[in-house]
Amino acid sequence: MYLVEESERMSDGSHRITFYYRCPVCGYRITIEEIIIENSGPNIIVKRNLRLSP
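and the corresponding structure tokens:
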């Protein structure tokens, strides 16, 4: 399995970064972590979702 980092800009202006393992043979995917970064006026909000166990 390969560790993949993917980032994307959402339609509301926020950014999402996802880390996951992907099997090159079958395409199976296990998401490890997702980070969402939002702009809220003068503040930046960071939300982090972790997968702690399988």
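(Above: one complete record from the training split.) The chain has one domain: 2-50.
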